[in-house]
Amino acid sequence: MTEHASGDGGTHAAGNGGTHAVGNGGRKRKKKHGGEESMVPDADFKSYYGRPVLKPPVWEWMVPAYLLTGGLSAGATLLSVGADLTNKPALCRSCRIGGFGALLASSYLLIGDLGRPLRFHHMMRVAKPTSPMSMGTWILMSYGPGSSLAGMVECLPKSWRTHSRYGPLLKWVARLSGMSAAVIAPALASYTAVLLADTAVPAWHGAYREMPFVFTGSAAASAAGLALATTPIKEAGPARKLAVLGAAIEITAARLIDRKPDFETSTFTHGEPHHLRQTSERLTLAGTLVAVTLARRSRIAAVLGGLALVAGSGFQRFGTFEAGVESTKDPIYVVKPQRERLNARRAEQERQRQEEEARAQGQPGEQQSGQ
After folding, report:
1. How far apart are CA 124 and CA 143, in angstroms?
2. What is the pTM (predicted TM-score) of this model?
3. Which residue, 94, 111, 270, 364, shows the most beta carbons closer than 10 Å to its own?
4. 125-158, pLDDT tens digit by residue?
């Protein structure tokens, strides 16, 4: 007789009698001879040595912070182009500078999380369309120069931008640079959702349809919040409208994730991720309500509403990140969906087999009736 130590502290003893002692409370099942089915304990979801089936993401706080700043920069760039074309210079300037600042923060957070700056450089040596990480690197590099140049022009002294002989040239340089960045901005706002959903993390992969809408709506809401907080009231009309649109998209897509019947996404609806996302929804709703009411007349209300929108976007990103981490800690989020898919596949195969047998049995009768 041999003994094997199990991962949860139990012992499996296998002898000629076919007796298996299981660590869960010392329960025993006897394997009977004569072809009868053996009675084995129901399998639990614990893995060997108490380790999770999937390794939790090694990313730290810098990654969800990067998700926030990247979306904020993309949304601000799009808003700045609209403001430029509709002759709202104050809104355009605040969004260009805000987008540039968020881009600098994104670069710092991304390179800081990689640990070694050369890793980012190495990722640019190849372009792999099937890799969201590779495509994300090229999206960021394509977006960065235009946003940076437009933002740097706005940071120049006003006398240079308006009263010098280089003023018209600088204006067109900023406009064309902003437009080039705006072409890439939607991809920048949404590619991080694709990047997360393309992993084996159950919660992220289970919400792959809704997460791009959550991230793009959150990017629009945060950019509108930044504009509300930094732009005079008389030019902040487009930001107020964008706040409503972004909040509606973000909250609707987040609610769809909460109502999904899939077990993998249940980590979104309880624990720390749920609290973070609830806080995000409350802040986003409050910021939107202030934007369409008090922010029309009060500069203080506009600043507070804008900050609430940015904070709501931040809580949304951190809540989404934590939901994915939680789904890797318990093996049930990996094992149970796999079993359900396997059972569904077997049931489909059995149904097809029965249909084929029914057709095969019906063919002789049809031939006889034809004769």
Report:
1. 14
2. 0.76
3. 94
4. 776 666 667 777 889 889 999 999 999 999 988 8
CB neighbours of residue 96 within 10 Å: 29
Report percent pLDDT > 70 for the chain.
Answer: 75
Q: CB–CB of 143/177 below 8 Å? A: no
pLDDT digits (tens, 9 = 90+) for 225-272: 999 999 999 999 999 999 999 999 999 999 999 998 877 788 999 999
Question: How many residues appear in the chain?
Answer: 371
Contact 45, 336 (CB under 8 A): yes
Instruction: Record the tokens describing residue 172, joined without a space.
Output: 């067109």
What is the Cα–Cα distance from 205 to 151, expressed in whole angstroms?
A: 36
- Within the chain, residue ranges assigned H as helices are 62-85, 89-114, 117-123, 132-155, 158, 167-197, 202-206, 211-230, 237-258, 271-292, 299-329, 332-370
Please state at what angle helix 237-258 crosses helix 211-230, rounded to 10 degrees: 150
Instruction: Yes or no: say if 63 and 211 are a contact pair by the CB < 8 Å rule.
Output: no
Neighbours of 370 (CB within 10 A): 6
HSE (side-chain half, CA atoms, 13 Å) at 98: 30
Q: Copy the structure tokens of residue 46.
A: 């614990």
d(CA 247, CA 233): 20
In whole angstroms, what is the distance from residue 284 CA to residue 319 CA? 14
pLDDT in tens, 7-23: 344 434 344 434 333 34
Three-state secondary-structure class, residue 14: strand
